[in-house]
Specification:
Length: 121
C-alpha cells in the first residue's frame, strides 16, 4: 500500500510538472498572440498610411500633368507670338529699307538724340 502511494505521489508530481510546463507554454503562446495582434495592427496602420500616401501622390501627379499641359500650351503660344513678331519685324525692316532715304534716317537719329538729351520731353 505504501508502495502504491509512493508511485501515485510520483505520478502526481510528474503531472504537476507537466501542468506547469503546459501553463508556461500557454503563457508564451498568449504573449506571441498579443505580439502578433500588435504587429497586425501596425501593419494595418502602415497599409492605411500607404494608401493615403498613394492617393496624395496620385493627386500630385494629376496636378503636375495639368501644369505640364498648361506650360506646353503657354510654350506653343509663345512660339506663335515669336513667329508673329519676327514676321512683323521682317516686314517693317523691308518697308523701312524700301521707303527711307539715308538722309531721313540720319534726321530721325538726330531728332531722337536731341529728345534723349532733353530727358525725353
Amino acid at each position: 500500500m505504501e508502495r502504491a502511494y509512493q508511485q501515485s505521489a510520483g505520478v502526481y508530481r510528474q503531472l504537476e510538472r507537466a501542468y506547469q510546463q503546459l501553463e508556461r507554454v500557454y503563457q508564451q503562446l498568449e504573449r506571441i498572440y498579443q505580439q502578433s495582434a500588435d504587429v497586425y495592427r501596425q501593419l494595418a496602420r502602415a497599409y492605411q498610411q500607404l494608401g493615403s500616401l498613394y492617393r496624395q501622390l496620385a493627386g500630385v501627379y494629376q496636378q503636375s500633368a495639368g501644369v505640364y499641359r498648361q506650360l506646353e500650351h503657354a510654350y506653343q503660344q509663345l512660339g506663335n507670338l515669336y513667329r508673329q513678331l519676327k514676321r512683323i519685324y521682317q516686314q517693317s525692316a523691308r518697308r523701312f529699307q524700301q521707303s527711307t532715304h539715308p538722309a531721313i534716317f540720319c534726321g530721325l537719329y538726330i531728332h531722337a538724340h536731341k529728345l534723349l538729351e532733353r530727358g525725353g520731353r
